[in-house]
């Protein structure tokens, strides 16, 4: 039987990562964090430092910006892994000019084959205005397609707004 997958969606700074971390703490399993971001500037370093402080100790960290199988293949059934976040993972592929359809298919396969419980965080990017440039529009459309695919594959989907969860699929335990 495949391990459970929870997909948490929300806007930037909506409280989705903290909500996801709390689900990991409640699970009682060994905690793992798949960090998909790349630290390319001081602003990102500050954000990463804030997330590290917020999570606290006791997490195994996997730093892998692109390769889903490399990040997820060795996880065990007694672990829970927080994937934070699918948006940065997609951005990394977009900026590397990788084939986004192929990368998405590889991610979905890695999720399906993962033995650990997964909690995947992603940004909802489709609620704002239409971006004024082609790259931003391509990203928004690709993020929307990725979110749809992740939600379809997940057992539970939760939208977090202002720190408050709204269950869209499945049930909150």
How would you characterize this protein structure?
It is a single chain. This protein has 173 residues and is α/β, with parallel strands linked by helices. Helix content is 43%, strand content 24%. The protein contains six helices and seven strands, in the order E-H-E-H-E-H-E-H-H-E-H-E-E. Strands 3-2-4-5-1-6-7 form a seven-stranded mixed beta sheet, sandwiched between helices.
- Class of secondary structure makeup: alpha/beta
Could you name the CATH topology? Answer: Rossmann fold
How many individual domains? Answer: 1
Q: Would you identify the CATH H-level superfamily?
A: P-loop containing nucleotide triphosphate hydrolases
**Percent helix:** 40-55%
In the predicted model, the low-confidence regions spanning at least 5 consecutive residues are none
Oligomer: single chain
Q: Any idea what the shape is?
A: globular
Average pLDDT over all residues: 93
Order of helices and strands: EHEHEHEHHEHEE
| β-strand amount | 15-25%
Overall strand count: 7
Q: What does the largest sheet look like?
A: 7 strands, mixed
**Rg from alpha-carbon coordinates:** 15 Å
Trace the largest sheet across and list its strands.
Answer: 3-2-4-5-1-6-7
Termini separation (Å)? 19 Å
Specify the CATH architecture. Answer: 3-Layer(aba) Sandwich
Q: What top-tier CATH class fits best?
A: Alpha Beta
């Amino acid at each position: 039987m495949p391990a459970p997958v929870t997909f948490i969606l929300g806007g930037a700074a909506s409280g989705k990562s903290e909500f996801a971390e709390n689900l990991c703490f409640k699970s009682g399993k060994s905690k793992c964090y798949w960090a998909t971001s790349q630290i390319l500037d001081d602003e990102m370093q500050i954000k990463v430092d804030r997330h590290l402080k917020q999570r606290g100790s006791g997490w195994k960290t996997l730093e892998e910006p692109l390769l889903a199988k490399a990040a997820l293949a060795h996880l065990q059934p007694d672990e829970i892994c927080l994937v934070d976040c699918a948006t940065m993972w997609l951005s990394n592929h977009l900026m590397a000019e990788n084939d986004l359809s192929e990368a998405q298919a590889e991610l979905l396969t890695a999720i399906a084959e993962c033995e650990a419980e997964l909690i995947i965080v992603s940004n909802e990017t489709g609620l704002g205005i239409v971006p004024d440039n082609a790259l931003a529009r391509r990203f928004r459309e690709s993020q929307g397609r990725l979110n749809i695919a992740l939600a379809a594959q997940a057992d539970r989907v939760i939208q977090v707004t202002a720190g408050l969860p709204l269950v869209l699929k499945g049930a909150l335990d």
